[in-house]
Amino acid sequence: MSQYFPGSSNFTIEGGTFNTVTYRNQNAKGGFERLQEYVAHGAFHDSGERFDPPKCHHNTRVAIIKRITNWISGLNEDKRDALIMWLYGAAGAGKSAIAQTIAEILDGQHFILASFFFSRNDPHRGTAKLLVTTLAYQLAVKLPAVFRERLSLAFEKDPLINTRSLDAQFKGLVREPLLELLHSGFSTNNHLVIIIDGLDECDDPKVQARIVDLSFELLRGRDIPLKILIASRPEIDISSSFDTKPFTTLGRIALDNDYQSDEDIRHFLEDKFNEIKTQHRLRSYIPTGWPAQDSMEKLVQKSSGQFIYASTVVKYVASARHRPTHRLEVVLGIQLPKAGDNPFAELDGLYRHILMGVEDVDLILQIIGFVVLHPPTFSNLVTEIEDLLSLAPGDVELLMQNLSSLISVETYRYDAEKLAIRILHASFKDYLLDQSRSKDFFLDSVKMHTHYAELCLVHITEHLSFQSNSSHQPFTGTTPCILIHLNFCVLTA
Prior knowledge:
The protein folds into three domains: 31-254, P-loop containing nucleotide triphosphate hydrolases (Rossmann fold, 3-Layer(aba) Sandwich); 261-333, no CATH class; 361-396 and 407-491, no CATH class. It is 48% helix and 11% strand. It has 21 helices and ten strands. α15 packs across α20 (445-468). The longest helix is centred in the last third of the chain and has 24 residues, at 445-468.
C-alpha cells in the first residue's frame, strides 16, 4: 500500500521511503532517448530498410551531379548565394537516384548530412510526422555534443514537441540547437546539408508546400551554415510555393533534355545488356549481336528521357528464371506476355497513382485522348482542344496542372503566343491504349474517335446555323473553323 504526501519530495511504499528525484532519474527517459522513438529509420540515405536504393549508373547524370556538388561546395558562381536547390522533373526521371548518389558522395567526403527519402507506400515515410525528428536525430549523431544537449533539453521541456506543428518542430529541434552550437564557437569549412527527396510522395499536398516554406524560414537570416536540396515532381502546390521565393536564395535544376538524358539512358541500357550477356545463367543461348541496334533505339525512344522505363525493362529482361531474348521480345511487342505477366508493372503502378490523384479524370482523359489519337495533320494546340470540348480559355491548363509530371503545357514551337500539350512519356500512351494495363483509365480508340466526330458535327451544325442567320457574314476561317472540324470528323470517323 502506497501513501503520497502533496508537496513532499518523498513517497512511501510498503517496505521503504523513496525520493521522487531519485525515482525520476532511474525511470524517466532523457530527451535524446525520447527523440529516438520518433525517427523514421528507413528515411536515411544509408538505411538498411532501403536495401539497394536507386542511384545513378556509372558515368550517367555527370553534369547534374557536378552542378549540385559544386553548388554545395560554393563553386557555382551564378548560384553562390542560393541556400536551397530544387531538383525537379517528370515522374520516373531519376530524381531519387540523383539524390541518393549526391548523399553517398557527400557522406564519402565527410559532410555533415541529414536526409529524408519520402515514399508513399511506407507508413513512416509517406507523411511528414517524423520528418523533423528524423533530420534532427541525424544531425545530433554527427555534430558536437552541444547540439545534442540543446536538442535533449527541448524534448525535456516539452515531451510532446514531436506532436507540435512543423513550424514549432523546425524551430525547437533544428534551428535553435544549431544556433546554440554556433554560439558555442562551432565552425565548419563546409555547409551542413539536408536532402529531402520525393517531397511529392508526402501524403498531403498542403504539407508539401508548407515544408518548402519552412525550409526557407529555417534559413531566413542566413545565420546557419546549412544548404537544403529538395527533389520532387513539379506538382502544383510545390511549384507554387517555390515560385513565390526570392530568386537569389533559390536554385533550380530541371531534369530535361539539356542534360543529355537519351545518351545517359543508352549508356545505361548498353551496360546492363552487356551484364546480362556475360552473367545470366542462359548467356550461352544469347546471340552475340543481341540486342539489335534498332531494338536499342526503340527502347531509348520509349524511355522519353525517363530512367524508370529503362530500369523497368532491364529488371524484367534480366530475370534469372526466364530467357532474356524472349522477355525483350515481349517488351518490344514481338511476343505476347504469358497470362498474369506484366513487364511494366512498376511503371503502370506509377501512372495509376498519378491519375487517381486528379479531379475530373474523365474530362482529362478526353483531352489526353485527343493528343494521343488525333490525325497527324492536327496540332496539340490548347485553344483547339478547348474549342472542340467547349471549354473556357484556361481550362486545359487548370486541368493539367496536377499531371505536370506526365504532361507538359508549353509554348507551341511554331507560334510563341500559343500553348500546346506534350506528353512527356512515350510509354504513357502505350499504357492508356492497353486495357489490360490501364483498366478503368483505358482510352478506347473506337469510342474516342466516335465521340470526337460527334463533337465536330455539333460544331459544324452550329456554324452552319450561324452562317444561315447572318447573310452578310463572310465565310472565313473563324473559330471554330468549319473546315477543320469537317476534316477532323472525316479523319476520325
